[in-house]
Amino acid sequence: MSFVIDQDNINSFHKDYQDRPESAVLERTVTKNGVNAASFDWHSIADNNPTFSIDLKTGDVADQKQSGRCWMFAALNTMRHSMQAKLNLADNFELSQSYLFFWDKFEKSNYFYENVIRTAKLAHDDRRVAWLMATPQGDGGQWDMLCALINKYGVVPQSAMPETYNSNRSNGVNEVLNNKLRHDAVILRKMVQDGKSDDDINVKRHQMLSEVYRILAYSFGEPPAKFDFEYRDKNHEYHRDADLTPQEFFKEYVSWNLDDYVSIINAPTADKPYHKTYTIEMLGNVVGGRQIKHLNVTMDEFKQLAIKQLQAGESVWFGSDVVKSSERKLGIMSLNAYNPQQLFDVDLDMSKADMLDYGQSMMDHAMVLTGVDIVDGKPTKWKVENSWGPKVGKKGYFVMSDAWMDKYCYQLVVNRKFLSDELQQDEDQAPIVLKPWDPMGTLA
Fold first, then answer.
1. 171-193 vs 97-118: helix axis angle to the nearest 10?
2. E strand or H helix at 374
3. Which helix (H) or strand (E) holds 361?
4. pLDDT tens-digit readout, 255-295
5. Category of 331 on φ-ψ map: left (φ > 0), alpha (ψ -120 to 50) or beta
């Protein structure tokens, strides 16, 4: 049945507001300062003192600037941490995010064309087609997508492909590229619907990709096929390795077997039983590359895996909903950072499962765990390396309360060796395919 708001209702609401003795002062406070400032709880500062029983040395933080490359920055940060320790590199050493940014957008364009052709006989307003066209490509990504890029293209140090205006501020190139991809989708869909041959479609697709390559090369510069790796270590000793390919550099200096690293999620929704694996329809970047795959575990298992990897001296890539209960300037992620429930005297509490099912929360940012404070055998808070530069938090590092992790952390990446035998068997299962718009398919 409908409920129509009439004047009697409004009079009742007005009376309830006026009868509250705190209304006048809170109205002045919130209108002047805003919701967050008015509801900030200073106790969260004392509760999240940045001291940790396990604290890895990881150097200077990076800065993704005005781009959505957090997943890429976080992943390359975990790799550079091990490189810094092995090669005694300077604290400000970075791997090139711009290099992988170029190849990611190039491969995403081809992946988009693949899905456009596959869905070409569906109506343009079919939900899958509409989902594809909403954002043909963007800056975000997943761990497995990064692995697919590195397996194909390797990595380079930032000195071999530095940042550009467009890698630091990606809105302009994204607007042009998405315009082009939608334009191309019209052509490809019509070719399929008109019964054009695969050869004809591939010729057109090749032309389209050549144009994408040109857009990206103008915007980011053309990626190096070979380069010289030169650096001075912390002892000021000079090193040079000449004429390397990006694949050779990754093999020699990063030396990771990416197959060892797996994605773990905590998604306590009814449609995702624990100890099963999941993938997401139409989500990826490299056609024929590594498939996105998540193993869903309990939150206790989730934390213990992160702790094991930190105890072994290795940082941990993770994904979360960073904007919730997060104080950017102070670098605090804590459930008591703000208290809008108390401020407005309303109930806003939702379970983690309900937040995922009803769109209140999803993974929107990837960072790196570099420490944890364990008291009486249990984690109380975590040290987080962000990629927003040194002017936020404690020189770019944040403190995350353990309760915040429970509620807003959804994904982490760990070495398979830290999984129990049972979890390794679970991870080996063929994944269940989720719909394209599933919250576990959001890009960090």
1. 20
2. strand 365-375
3. none
4. 999 999 999 999 999 999 999 999 999 999 999 999 999 99
5. left
Fill in the amino acid letter for 75.
A
Got the DSSP string for 288-320?
Answer: TSPPP-EEE--HHHHHHHHHHHHHTT--EEEEE
Longest Cα separation, the chain: 81
238-244 and 397-401 strand pairing: unpaired
**Could you please report the per-residue DSSP string of 49-81?**
-S--SEE----S--B--BS--HHHHHHHHHHHH
Count Cβ atoms within 10 A of the Cβ of residue 336 and give its class: 0-12 exposed, 13-18 middle, 19 or more buried: middle
pTM of the full predicted structure?
Answer: 0.96
pLDDT digits (tens, 9 = 90+) for 232-245: 999 999 999 999 99
CB 411 within 8 A of CB 296: no
CA distances, 119 to each of 181, 192, 212, 374 (Å)? 15, 10, 21, 50
Three-class DSSP category at 231: strand
User: Average pLDDT in the 64-75 region?
Assistant: 97
Q: Are 261 and 412 in contact (CB under 8 A)?
A: no
Q: What angle do CA 389, 364, 375 make, to 5 degrees?
A: 75
- φ, ψ for residue 331 (rounded to 5)? 75, 45
CA 260 to chain centre: 20
Structure tokens at 1: 């049945």
Pairing relationship of beta strands 261-265 and 294-296 according to DSSP bridges: parallel
Q: Strands (DSSP E) along 6-123, which ranges?
A: 54-55
Distance CA 442, CA 131 (A): 12
Q: What gap in Å lies between CA 94 and CA 102, rounded to an integer?
A: 17
Q: So which residues are the catalytic ones? A: 70, 365, 386
* Cβ(387)–Cβ(64) below 8 Å: yes
Q: What is the average pLDDT score of the chain?
A: 97
CA 18 to chain centre: 45
233 CB neighbour count, 10 Å cutoff:
14
**Helix segments in 228-372, DSSP class H:** 246-249, 299-311, 340-344, 352-357
